[in-house]
User: What shape does this take?
Amino acid sequence: MTGQQPCHQVPRQHAPGRGTPVAPHFAGYLGRDELRAEGLRRSVSARPVIGCVDEGQSLPRATLEGLRLLSNLETEKRKLIQIVLFGQPELDALLARPQIRQLMQRITFSGYLGTLSAERVPAYLEHRLAIAAQDGFTDVKVFDANAARALARYSGGVPRLVNVLAHKCLMLAFGEGVHRVNALHVRLAAADTPGVRRSPSWWKRLRAAWRKPGRPASPIALD
Assistant: This one.
């Protein structure tokens, strides 16, 4: 489920793939009674119903209210549906609105996935490549050390930007007929990607270093 889908349509879309029978007279959605019955059936067999909602920061207020109503499905002992809401940092501001405080009060656990440190980016890249690899013998050390450092710098450690840049780098390497991604590939990918961090030129870095306390404002003196 994503933030662009109406809340009442999502159960109907995903129910067939989960083995949930769908009554033919329901045109576009399953009602709360059907969801409650499915939750009760699964709770007996210790198989919880978990709904995952992505792009939560894009959810309209009506959909958030629908999620709150779904969270009310419960027995005297347990909830029948567990809802996991994913989103960008803007989701925090959305949930903080007074109009939807009732939903905020139902959140029992929250977590924040921070940015990746430069040291973790190489392992992250290898993990993603290993998941997509044909088998365990596939070479997943595609990004050389300089490329991984450049990816960390341009992306700021944001996983989504790392993914976008890495994908473009792989396409560039494929177009050149090479198996290794280097720093030049990363620079070309970054130039084509909005939202990346632009590295200052060597001249700007040199000026910034010379402007530290105790040093003259510029290393160059003009007559």
Notes: The radius of gyration is 25 Å. The chain has ten helices and two strands. The first strand starts at residue 49 and ends at 53. Residues 8-18, 22-28, 217-223 have pLDDT under 50 and may be disordered.
